Amino acid sequence: MNINEMRHDLLERFLEECNDNLIPAGMVEATEEGEPETVEFVLMDVGDAGDEARGFLYFDPMHTPEDEVQHLTCLITLQEALPEGRLPLFYQALAHINFTLPYGCFSIDTKNRFLAYKLCVPIAIEMTGEELYDEINIVTGNAAEAVDTYMGVLSDIRDGSMDLENVLEFLGG
Length: 173
What we know:
The chain is an alpha+beta fold and 173 residues long. The protein has one domain: Yope Regulator, Chain: A. 40% of the residues lie in helices and 28% in strands. The protein has helices spanning 3-20, 87-100, 129-159, 164-170; strands spanning 25-28, 38-46, 51-59, 69-78, 105-109, 114-124. A hairpin with a 4-residue loop joins β5 (105-109) and β6 (114-124). α1 (3-20) crosses α3. The termini are far apart.
């Protein structure tokens, strides 16, 4: 089995597990050369406010057949558009939050004004099968945990009930 077939099988397995656990999910096929096949899934009740988020799990395209490392990415987007007047505060707050994160980062899609969290991890190309599937679960679990941990703060900034000083207090500084 080649690496693309293995990746497809693992993403299909993740999709089936989502569906078995009643998590809305689907496969997004690559439409252009070099675009990854992606599992899109919905996270419900994220953070204290019970927000909804969309997750995207995919393997980044290989650069050359000789690559020794592959990259697995979990991107989680928080779909509600951010108030334009609060964007400067979000940029400041995310700079501080990202500095404290042990992995991944939050960002803002400036075109659509929504928040995103991205975790991309390098994985040895030799890792296959069950070991690689375990890594998929670790990556998606860590990404979901990071979003859930900070969603309350981010919702409060969005709603205007938290300023930068409150964010710094939350972060312990």
